[in-house]
Amino acid sequence: MEPLSATIQQNLLTLLAYSEKSGRIISKRLDPALCEGEHRLIAELLINYWRQWDAPPGIAHTADLFSDILDDKNNRRAPTFRRILTFMRELWEQGINEGYVLDRFDISTEAQLLKDAVLRSAEQLQASQELAVPEIHRIWNEMLRYRKIEFHAGTTLVDVDSLFDFLESQYSEFPTGIPALDKREIGPSRGSAFLVIAPTGYGKSWFLIHLGKMAMNLRKKVLHVTLEMAEEEVKQRYFQNIFTISKREKEVPITTLEVESGELTGLGTEEITPEFTFHSRYVREDIETRVHLMAGKLQNVRIKQFPTSALTVEMLDAFLDNLEVTHKFIPDILILDYIKLMKTDAKNLRVSLGRTFEELRGLAIRRNLALVTAAQGNRTSMGAEWVRASHTAEDISLVQSADVAITYSQKPEEKKRGLARLYVDKFRHDEDKFGILLTQSYRLGQFVLNSMELEPAYWDYLKEDEVADDEPEEEEDDE
Predict the structure, then answer these.
(1) Average pLDDT of the residues in 339-366
(2) Position 114 confidence tier, pLDDT thresholds 50, 70, 90
(3) DSSP label of 158
(4) Tens digits of per-residue pLDDT, 280-333?
(5) Which DSSP symbol is given to 265?
(6) How many alpha carbons fall within 13 Å on the CB side of residue 273?
(7) Among positive and negative, which fits the CA dihedral 154, 156, 162, 163?
(8) Which of 40, 433, 446, 474 is the most exposed place for a label (fewest CB within 10 A)?
(9) Phi then psi for 437, rounded to 5 degrees?
(10) 430 DSSP 8-state letter
């Protein structure tokens, strides 16, 4: 049988060494002969460890398994083993998409079985002609019995552990940093679609960048696909959001929420002096220093621009394959800014856009990643007091296919004060139809500074709150 790809080998060995759940599955299914060179010996020793202890060797014991090689100064293989083991540990610490790795192993195993069945069938036909038909049937029946049994056997109602694994991680793995959402576990999740709906120029891109930063802070791998802004412009916004960088060297007015006993009692204001701006004298040195300190997290964010109206789901799928094989980068979350700018059929836009969104959600399921994207509100959404899912431009089926749909609303007087409102219009798994109040500052790159569930008294405080109107909070770069 042909060896597995180098990337799959490295991922499988990492899970064998460090993952209790996935390592147990792999230890029972992986044939070390599918690995090449040093990887084969590493696989053999890790599998033997599992058979003896029924647990991964982990950080404490993985290197010990190879001490006879690593400690031998005359062993020429020692540097290679040391490099592989170091890479495995770094890969585990950075985070690895276990479900996707198991899926790729499953697909590779099935491909090997298919190749083997084809070759054996051809040999039988060549040797025995029509007399080989019974043996060929046996070969293919044997292959079909093995087909997809490794990781897709389903679940049973007595498997309580899998239920609680789901409850503990599925909707809390990617927090939004907005308490009213996080306490209800409303956010991106693997195999699902998180949809943001807002009028043109009302902060969709800032929301997506905020979610990317939140995932990055948890050392998740983030792929941010931009179909409108240049990669460097998106990078600038990430730096603004992560490091709270202002574009201008002046104090920034911010609206504050005055809260007592959990209830809103008024709106206040304060001014923040940014530590530095993009026009500061030593801004390059400041950013380079911060990037160096946060390199372990920042390297998990990859930004990729595709031409507007050119990207298809098939192209995106191929790009993800290339990232995995060439750069060993497997995203945990895919942020797409935004779906309408993908390639669609202009003659049948509604159907085409809806089908594209369904295919994207299927890609998220297949690759075990969280999908986050945005949709544009129609013209009436710009004047609406509350943006709703019904304001979605082009195709309401986007909302129907989404697992979470959140709208963004902002009246002119709120925009001047750095205030905005979110509305959870759809949450497939629990309570929805409620509003959230945000304070924000796009000058500082912050989609959300503070937040709370919206209360009826807010509207009275908004009318009472008088803020000097010499300059709006941010008239540019809202999108």
Answers:
(1) 86
(2) confident
(3) T
(4) 888 889 899 999 999 989 999 999 999 998 899 988 988 898 888 788 899 999
(5) E
(6) 1
(7) positive
(8) 433
(9) -95, 135
(10) S
Alpha-helical regions (H) of 244-386: 283-293, 295-298, 313-327, 349-367
Instruction: Determine the 3-state secondary structure of 1 from DSSP.
Output: coil
**Length of the chain as a residue count:** 479
Distances (CA, A) of 39 to 35, 150, 154, 353: 6, 22, 31, 44
> Which residue, among 190, 230, 245, 225, has the nearest Cα to 301 in the 3D structure?
225
Radius of gyration of the chain (CA): 26
In the beta sheet, which residues pair with residue 225?
Answer: 304, 336
Q: Are 66 and 85 in contact (CB under 8 A)?
A: yes
Distance CA 275, CA 249 (A): 9
Verify cis geometry, omega within 30 degrees of 0, for the bond prior to 338: yes
Tokens of 190: 């693997």
Identity of residue 60 = A
Which stretches of 147-221 are assigned E, i.e. beta strand? 193-198
- State which H helix or E strand residue 29 sits in: helix 20-29
The closest alpha carbon to 372, from 201, 189, 249, belongs to 189
Question: Comparing C-alpha atoms, which of 422, 433, 449, 451 is closest to residue 264?
Answer: 451
Alpha carbons 119 and 130: distance in angstroms, whole number? 16
C-alpha span between 435 and 410 (Å, rounded): 12
Please return the burial class of 286, using the count of CB atoms within 10 Å of its CB with bins 0-12, 13-18 and 19+.
Answer: middle
Amino acid at 438: L
> Residue 148: its pLDDT value, please?
46
